[in-house]
Amino acid sequence: MSKKVVLAYSGGLDTSAIVPWLIENKGCEVHAFVADVGQGEDELAGVEAKAIASGAVSCKIADLTDEFVDDYVMPTIQTGAIYEGKYLLGTAMARPIIAKAQAEHALAIGADAVSHGCTGKGNDQVRFESAFAAIAPNLEVMAPWREWDLTSREALLAYLAERQIPCTASATKIYSRDRNIWHISHEGGAIEDPWNAAPEDAWQMTSSIENAPNAPEDVSITFEQGMPVALEGRAMSATEILEALNLVGGEHGVGRVDLVENRLVGMKSRGLYETPGGTILVAAYHSLEELVHDRMSLHYKEHVGLTFAELVYNGQWFTPLREALTAFASNMAQKVTGTVVVKLHKAHAIASQRQSPNSLYDEQFATFGKDEVYNQTDAAGFIKLWSLPQRISALHTMGAVTS
Question: Is 95 among the catalytic positions?
Fold first, then answer.
């Protein structure tokens, strides 16, 4: 009996080949699943017809963009999660929502299996399959890249050509890309050699520093309880704000990252990432947190951000720890209300103004001018007690204290 399988389908080279491969080699009835996470109309145009032409019985396109931004992007911002100091986790945090929706669709149509086009070298296979395990553990997982002998771009193109299956990919399109509303990533080709400067033709969302406007531009973002709610004073959804910031940030060259990262599977890889709107949102959010959180909370949150980034990167979204850390960040986010002005200039996004009704900053205490609320002589006693352990240690060393 043939198996009914739901394939995470993009219409790219790999998944275009996977459809006929599953039919021919596994005897499957293939149903394509396309997740719209804001990758743009260009990537989604004609994807359903392309899937059917490849041999799929059906093709479902699920609009997940708002859910992705509200329930995956924003919690990641709120925790302060950044992987290895640079990566804003654009691909990593999109995988759990895609895999969850794919598995749910598979269960809804009575499928026996799910499939993906991830290679055996990458992180995404772990992310997809960990999500499948959490959502639908009884479904079989088919990963053709770990089985077939189509090990090169040229082999995949030839495979499709033999079957007269249309594909927009070509041997000259050397970069492997992943795009959603949050970012776009680039790998492959000249990028693989870390001694090569990032090729200018790889970048798609952002201008180079040389081509960015010479004049800076300010953008004003308003947050309510940790969520962006207005841009330049105009009420908008978080998705709309991110889309607008992508455009203005991209124009100013904001959000380019060139990173040699440590993959979960053990090797290092080099990737180029563009996250213009996200970089602006992160800068704005963090600057508002500086106003509203006390020292202990803010410092502890740095540890949470590091752990959360590793959980997301390592495909552990559907875990109790991730849920607990999200709850922690959501609680802290209740105070993150206010407005931030971010200055964009030549690849920089710098928070220059911020205000909040929950601000803990008090100019009466912080001023270098004359004040009536802080007695500076009180500092002497505080310092004496604060440094008491060092004082006792030094006295012991000098022999001035005897037991």
Answer: yes
Residue tagged active-site, from 54, 115, 176, 207: 176
Domain contains 330 = no
Please tell me which residue in 10, 14, 36, 130 is annotated as part of the active site.
14
256 is catalytic: no
Active-site residue among 95, 179, 256, 322? Answer: 95
- Catalytic annotation on 14? yes
Please report the DSSP string for 205-263 in residue order. Answer: SS--TTTS-SS-EEEEEEEETTEEEEETTEE--HHHHHHHHHHHHHHTTTTEEEEEEE-
Query: How would you write the pLDDT of the chain (403 residues) with one tens digit per residue?
Result: 569 999 999 998 899 999 999 999 999 999 999 999 999 998 899 999 999 999 999 999 999 999 999 999 999 999 999 999 999 999 999 999 999 999 999 999 999 999 999 999 899 999 999 999 999 999 999 999 999 999 888 899 999 999 998 877 666 667 889 999 999 999 999 999 999 999 999 999 999 999 999 999 999 999 999 999 999 999 999 999 999 999 999 999 999 999 999 999 899 999 999 999 999 999 999 999 999 999 999 999 999 999 999 999 999 999 999 999 999 999 999 999 999 999 999 999 999 999 999 999 876 665 566 667 778 888 899 999 999 999 999 999 887 555 5
Q: Which residues on neighbouring strands pair with residue 223, listed in sequence order?
A: 228, 338
Q: Does the annotation count 146 as an active-site position?
A: no
Q: Are strands 348-355 and 338-345 parallel, antiparallel or unpaired?
A: antiparallel
pTM of the model: 0.93
What's the domain count of the chain? 3
- Catalytic residue chosen out of the listed positions 124, 153, 185, 322: 124
Range of the domain at 198: 183-293+335-355
Q: Is residue 403 part of a domain?
A: no
CA distance 216 to 201: 25
Find out whether 51 and 138 touch, Cβ atoms under 8 Å. Answer: no
Do residue 255 and residue 345 come from a single domain?
A: yes
